[in-house]
Amino acid sequence: GLYATPSTDTAVASAPDDKSGVASGVYKMASSLGNAFGVAVSGTVYTVLAANLNLNLGGFTGMMFNALLAIVAFLVILLLVPKNQTNL
């Protein structure tokens, strides 16, 4: 999507040249693990609420949980990504 190429470039560009393959592999593994974890947690939130209350509340809460995770991810990126990278 819109983030995959820039985030991969950033992850690989910040690594030394001789470690770019390792950086790419670690990035892909972390990305896949994060995606799997996000789907599992979101699905669990939806299923628990939909089974106990109703489908609309389960869907709404699942989407709000995803929005909260997106906001947290954005804040973590703002805090942890160095701002003075000139080699990109």
TrEMBL record:
Residues 1-85 form the Major facilitator superfamily (MFS) profile domain. This is MFS transporter. It comes from Escherichia coli. Keywords: Cell membrane, Membrane, Transmembrane, Transmembrane helix. GO terms for molecular function: transmembrane transporter activity. The keyword Cell membrane applies. Signal peptide: none annotated. The chain crosses the membrane at residues 33-51, 63-81. It comes from the Bacteria. InterPro entries: MFS_dom (IPR020846), MFS_trans_sf (IPR036259).
